[in-house]
Amino acid sequence: MKIINKKYSCLKVLNSSKGGIWSRVTFVIITLVVIGSVLFLFLENQGKINKYHHRKAIELSDYGLMQMMEQVGEHLREDPTKITGIEKTEYDEGWYKVEVTISQKDTALTLAIESKGHSGSQEAVRKENILLYRSTIEGDSVWLPQQSK
């Protein structure tokens, strides 16, 4: 005795002796192709988003470093030992933060600057070392950057 479900005709094809196995295999293959395509598109889109945020984090880090260099330029005439970093500052879809470490030895002053930029889930860090030396011209003392050779 063969039971045939007249209400659901697709079950008839799946249970028939002619097309049951092949229709199931075809259904599984189509399902795997659809799932694989959706997963591929999702990962490709996620990669583009991460690349965008990484570039933005680098830009923010560079911008923070530029802001710090302006501050260094202003303080060179006065007292560069009073240079402080820049607190976490929201800017252009992310934030930047700059930390400065100052070390002085005789007439040389080294500024170690670390600028962090953050956008989305990405972070970029840029580090610079600036070597300054004290020069006395006509009794006036000034800090000058070391000249590259």
Describe this structure as you would to a colleague:
The protein contains 2 helices and 5 strands; from the N terminus they run ααβββββ. It has about 150 residues and is α+β, with helices and mostly antiparallel strands. It has a 5-stranded antiparallel β-sheet. Strand 3 and strand 4 (about 120-135) form a beta hairpin. The radius of gyration is 32 Å and the shape is rod-shaped. The model has no long low-confidence stretch (mean pLDDT about 85).
Topology of this protein?
Blueprint: H1 9-15, H2 20-76, E1 86-91, E2 94-105, E3 108-119, E4 122-137, E5 140-145
Antiparallel strand pairs: 1-2, 2-3, 3-4, 4-5
In total, the number of strands is 5
Over all CA atoms, what is the radius of gyration? 32 Å
Give the % helix.
40-55%
Return the structural class. alpha+beta
Q: List the total number of helices.
A: 2
Order of helices and strands: HHEEEEE
List keywords for this structure.
five-stranded antiparallel β-sheet, single chain, alpha+beta, 43% helix, 149 residues, 2 helices, rod-shaped
